[in-house]
Amino acid sequence: MRVVLRQTGIGLFYAGRKHWVGNPDSALDLETIERATELSRDESFGEMDIVVTYDDPTCDLVLPLRRKSEADDKQQNLAEDLRRAGYTVTGGH
């Protein structure tokens, strides 16, 4: 099993500081999802996917990784849309 980062827009994989490759086998193995998440945050990457690869490519697991602010904006917009539609929205972050 390997854990790699893929840039969503162009499909390239992270191979090291300012180095991107097209082949996931040549990408840097970050070993854990937590490490991949921390690296993406520390480097201020935009939209990324964490790809957990296995010997069988049909078993690969892709986890979308988005900036928190984008998710918060979408959640806030949804809450506002629901309020305009007459729903009561409570709680939230």
Structure description:
- It is a single chain.
- The protein has 93 residues and is α+β, with helices and mostly antiparallel strands.
- Helices cover 29% and strands 26% of the residues.
- The chain contains two helices and five strands, in the order βββαββα.
- It starts with a strand and ends in a 9-residue tail after the last helix.
SSE map:
Layout: E1 2-7, E2 13-16, E3 19-21, H1 33-42, E4 48-53, E5 61-65, H2 68-84
Antiparallel strand pairs: 1-4, 2-3, 4-5
Brief overview, please?
The chain is of the alpha+beta class. It is built from two helices and five strands, in the order E-E-E-H-E-E-H. The protein has one domain.
Rounded to the nearest angstrom, the distance between the terminal CA atoms is 35 Å
Mean pLDDT: 87
Q: Beta-strand level of the residues, as a percent range?
A: 25-35%
Number of strands: 5
Structural class: alpha+beta
List keywords for this structure.
93 residues; alpha+beta; three-stranded antiparallel sheet; two-stranded antiparallel sheet; 2 helices; 5 strands; 26% strand
